[in-house]
Amino acid sequence: IDGLTYEFRIITYTYAPSPADRPELEIKWGDGTTSILPRVIKVDLTPEIRRNEYVGQHTYASGGGGTFKISVEDPNRNYGIVNIPNSVNIPFYIETELVINPFLGSNNSVVLLNPPLDYGCVNRLYIHNPNAYDPDGDSLSYKLTVCRGAGGQPIPGFEIPAASNSFTIDEYSGNLIWNTPIVQGEYNAAFIIEEWRSGVRIGYVTR
After folding, report:
1. Helix, strand or coil, per DSSP, at residue 76
2. What is the predicted pLDDT for the residue at 104?
3. How far apart are alpha carbons 34 and 72 in whole angstroms?
């Protein structure tokens, strides 16, 4: 926004009928401080899927910059996720890395135009792409990561969705390729999108 002041936008997709609605979320700024962000947009895309946006600003301390890991944790996931044991009791956690470097100039995070919701078919090739772009023109790369829970720790028992051949992401195009699903059900997966400028990684976001 200006100098060391940044605006953050958290986007979540939740199960609309659930009584565990979240009108606000706590965000950890990565500098030892936290804030409660209000929900500014709530849209029910279907009777079961709700899109939520939370917005807030934060000013980092003056100095030579630094690397900050901004994170959000929500107490619940959907019930019955195939590849996460006891998923309804496992927190949902996402994080973003922000690098503030006066020599690299200002930076905006990557924007993901496609929602993280998709439908595949058993025994059929599945491809999902987040349709990402960087407002600053920085280069992007993609890699799988594990789903994380309480405190940002890897979820015990989490497994990459089972495939008849492979479950991968193309580091250049961002195509998440599931070749091919075996068992019908609801799954969670996670990947990070890294931003690069002049050969230097200047942050990432998690999907």
Report:
1. coil
2. 84
3. 10
CA–CA distance from 76 to each of 35, 92, 139, 140, 191 (Å)?
Answer: 20, 6, 34, 30, 20
- Is the pLDDT at 106 greater than 90? The verdict is no
**Pair type for strands 24-28 and 66-74:** antiparallel
Q: What is the pTM of this model?
A: 0.91
| Distance between CA atoms of residues 50 and 41, nearest Å | 10
* Length of the chain counted residue by residue: 207
User: Do 50 and 92 meet the contact criterion of CB atoms below 8 Å apart?
Assistant: no
CA distance linking residue 32 with residue 122, whole number of Å: 45
Give mean pLDDT, residues 25-40: 97
In the predicted structure, residue 64 carries a pLDDT above the cut 80: no
Total Cβ atoms within 10 A of residue 120:
16
Nearest to 128 by CA among 118, 138, 136: 118
